[in-house]
Specification:
alpha/beta, seven-stranded mixed sheet, two-stranded parallel sheet, elongated
Length: 255
């Protein structure tokens, strides 16, 4: 009986520790954002890969108490960000700042990736574009396709004097619209632009113009409902990734 009592006492001593460890595990709800390659890419067989997936797995390795759930389920970018703002999700990966998003979300340093926005044109396009004035000069013959709900449409509206079409939410659709002459250009981000064109079967039909039209940094953004101590843990992991060069290596991998 004494042996049984000792065994029971030993188990009782272990249980609080196990419970305490379990309480330190924090699940962060996320989603894969459609049309955002190379952040999230369809890897086939229902598997999502990409820059943000690598970032999530690296944060989990640095801080084993943080677990990302939902990164294998797709949502449109607009909805993915909206669900963080409405507390249905906790974090969005590599998104751009805007005044509205600043009011709804907490943006964490460091910068995840500096996006360069380039114009895609049909392969037979002869026009040299060095500035937005070159596009403005085309008038209605210079329609620029952009993804609806992305910050590119807001940026072009602020510039003014441009003919913009934001009817499609998927970049693949815009590439096909461009090839079908339903626009003169498609404005989209790099890295990953040439790979996107190849994956959508548009290689040889379209080309990327060399001039960078504008640049914008992206960040990890978290919901304002998330406990500040958890936000701090994610921030520390990101800072460590930047300090050790891990973040730069991940970005380079997906260029």
């Amino acid at each position: 009986m004494r042996h049984v009592a000792r065994a029971m006492l030993f188990l009782c001593c272990l249980l609080p520790a196990a419970g305490s460890q379990a309480q330190n595990i924090v699940t962060l709800r996320v989603a894969a954002q459609t049309g955002t390659e190379p952040k999230f890419i369809d890897g086939g067989n229902g598997r999502v890969i990409g820059l943000c997936i690598d970032i999530f797995r690296t944060i989990e390795r640095i801080d084993p108490g943080l677990v990302f759930a939902g990164d294998q389920q797709w949502l449109p970018l607009i909805r993915a960000i909206s669900e963080v703002a409405t507390r249905q999700h906790d974090l969005a990966c590599a998104i751009q700042r805007s005044p509205e998003r600043e009011r709804q979300l907490v943006f964490l340093d460091p910068v995840i990736v500096q996006l360069q926005y380039l114009l895609v044109a049909r392969a037979d396009e002869q026009l040299v574009v060095d500035s937005w004035d070159d596009v403005r000069a085309l008038g209605e013959r210079g329609v620029v396709l952009v993804n609806r709900g992305f910050t590119t449409s807001e940026y072009l509206e602020q510039l003014g004097g441009l003919h913009v079409s934001a009817s499609a939410t998927d970049p693949a659709i815009n590439l096909h619209m461009l090839a079908a002459r339903r626009g003169r250009f498609f404005l989209h981000r790099n890295p990953g632009l040439k790979a996107l064109i190849a994956r959508t079967g548009m290689a040889g039909k379209l080309k990327v113009l060399p001039h960078v039209m504008y640049q914008n940094p992206t960040y990890i953004a978290m919901g304002r409902h998330v406990d500040p101590s958890v936000v701090a843990r994610v921030r520390r992991a990101l800072e460590q990734m930047e300090r050790t060069g891990e973040l730069a290596r991940i970005v380079k991998k997906w260029e």
